[in-house]
Amino acid sequence: MTAAWPRADQRLERAYRRLLLAYPGRYRRRHGTEIVTTLLEMAGPDQHRPDRDEAWHLLASGLRQRFRLPAGRPVAWVAAVLIALIAGAFGAAAGSWAGELTFADLPAEATVARQAAGEIDTDQLAVLHDASPWSADMIFADSRLGPGWNPEHTEQRLSAAGWTVTPGAPLSGHAVTVDPATGAPVDVPVRGTELRAESHGVLLQVRGYVTAQTSSVSVTGWAARTPAYLPLVVLGTLLGLVAGWLLAAAGAYRLVRARRPWLAATVSATAILALVLPAVALYGNLMRVFRRLGDFGPAHTVHSAFSPGPYYPFGPTWQVLALSVAGVVLAAGALLVARPGGSAQPEQNPA
Q1: Sheet holding 164-178, edge to edge
Q2: Which of 113, 177, 332, 341 might form a disulfide with 259, Cβ 3.0–4.6 angstroms?
Q3: In whole angstroms, what is the distance from residue 347 CA to residue 30 CA?
Q4: Whole-number pLDDT of residue 2
Q5: Rounded percentage of the chain residues whose pLDDT exceeds 70
Q6: How far is residue 275's CA from residue 267's CA, in Å, rounded to a whole number?
Q7: 146-160 pLDDT tens trace
Q8: In sequence order, what E strands does the chain have?
Q9: CB count in 10 Å sphere of residue 34
Q10: Contact 257, 64 (CB under 8 A)
């Protein structure tokens, strides 16, 4: 005698199948029909939707299956930890990038230079837009003037342009020049003033030095960190850690069933090795973000490690970005190589 399919409301069956989406696809293909059949047999005659306990049980069991690694494979645990940490670093970078989008736009270097120094000769102006591998972008302008620079005039110009100016702090130092008669180096005492200004989320540091013959005024500007930045970094890190473990778990089962498991494992290991150095750089920047929260200066960011620059004292300036791209390409290649072809890994039915 053939057993009949349990009669139940189709809405109940569809609800159960929607809840089964919490399970990984490989598990649903092996056990989905069995689980739904069992649940329908246990359902009450007038039940039209899963009760709350059933729903929570299916969701929790499904998530547990997604996080589970193949049994008896310690290498899979090591790889999963590394992949989760790497993904957490890249998640922090993604959150940092999203957080920097909330920063204010920087003004033109020449504009702030004229606001600080007044009318200047273009030939006496040096500007720079710096993309650091440790912090957010900043602007820099240095102007050479005659001996008559006055910090009070700078404060007036900045205030007229909408900046809120902090009263100046005195600076002292010395410059080295050459005696035109003897060619010998001569120390020249200088006096200076530092001003700080803020406007619409942009901060300026103005430093002016005056000697008997000349003056120099330098302006450094950067965007202030917004309140949304740190929560986005933390959220990105946590999501990256979780996504990395899920990816490692799914990849481990795919690798177990791969037609060429050794090739897939070799490509996967190469991808992990390629991504280790970028991950270390990203975590280094993440530590700087929290360690230097109160510092006056450009905001430290995580994703700035991808900017070309001497982050490491070895290798080319673009190695962090290049290794990241190479690692992602290798990881995608590993998933393609690990096409299922072997027998499926037995899995316990928790429902």
Answers
A1: 125-130, 138-145, 215-223, 202-210, 185-199, 164-178
A2: 341
A3: 9
A4: 47
A5: 90
A6: 12
A7: 777 788 888 999 999
A8: 125-130, 138-145, 164-178, 185-199, 202-210, 215-223
A9: 11
A10: no
Q: Which residue has the tokens 């349990």?
A: 6
From the CB of residue 77, how many other CB atoms can be counted at a distance below 10 Å? 13
Residues 336 and 258: beta-carbon distance below 8 Å:
no
Q: Percent of the chain at pLDDT above 90? A: 48
DSSP 8-state secondary structure symbol assigned to residue 255: H
In terms of pLDDT, which residue wins out, 345 or 246?
246
Residue with tokens 């037609």: 259
pTM across the whole model: 0.82
Cα-based angle 54, 56, 58 (whole degrees, multiple of 5): 70
Between CA 136 and CA 299 the distance in angstroms is 6
Reading the block at residue 286, the tokens are 């993440």
User: 286, 89 in Cβ contact below 8 A?
Assistant: yes
CA torsion, points 154, 160, 166, 167, in degrees to nearest 10?
A: 50
Query: What CA–CA distances, in Å, run from 244 to 82, 91, 236?
Result: 9, 9, 12
Yes or no: say if 177 and 152 are a contact pair by the CB < 8 Å rule: no
> What domains are there in the chain, each with its CATH number?
1-67 (no CATH), 72-103+225-351 (no CATH), 109-223 (3.40.1000)
Contact between 186 and 178 (Cβ < 8 Å):
yes
